[in-house]
Amino acid sequence: MKKILLSLTLLMLSVAMYAQNEVTKFLGIPIDGAKAAMIQKLKAKGFTYNAQVGLLEGTFNGEKVYVSIQTNKNKVWRINVFDKTYRDETQIKIRFNKLCQQFDDNPKYYPLKETQNLSDNDDISYGMTVEHKQFEAIYYQLPYEGALDRVVWFNIGAVSGEYNLYIHYENKRNESHGEDL
């Protein structure tokens, strides 16, 4: 009987460890579980809560950022990271392309398209306001098995003629799939 219980315990532990490896990670933290637990894990990584804006803040990839956590049925499905510093159009193109290059050079990610960089000819202001275009890049976090559920993407946002970069780490398994309709 003890052997059976030990075997079942080991089996459940290995399944739990496998499941944690199969979700998107942000700073090595699986995008899963309760929001309160995620906040504590991010605080342990050096982020602090800013009550004025209702977000976590800290440094990520060399930038001062805000972090928000989105949940579905109290399970984390997305971490949003966005720069605290707004930029002009030239600066945001440089920031966007640098981030594309960092993801392209990182063996933990696979790009949706071969090239996602912005060119000098891309007019962000015109594209966003007139053409309602979204400037984005999409990557899948490896390993390949189940990678479509482990999406990391980023896009440019605009506020009053200034631009910001938003990075989204998603666990597609925890997002809403229409079950409440």
Provide the descriptors you would attach to this structure in a database record.
single chain; 181 residues; alpha+beta; eight-stranded antiparallel sheet; two-stranded antiparallel sheet; 4 helices; 10 strands; 29% helix; globular; disordered N terminus
Explained architecture:
With 181 residues, the protein is α+β, with helices and mostly antiparallel strands. The chain has four helices and ten strands, in the order αββαββββαβαβββ. Strands 3-4-5-6-10-9-8-7 form an eight-stranded antiparallel β-sheet, covered by helices on one side. Strands 1-2 form a two-stranded antiparallel sheet. A hairpin with a 2-residue loop joins strand 4 and strand 5 (63-72). The protein is globular and about 45 Å long. It starts with a helix and ends in a 10-residue tail after the last strand.
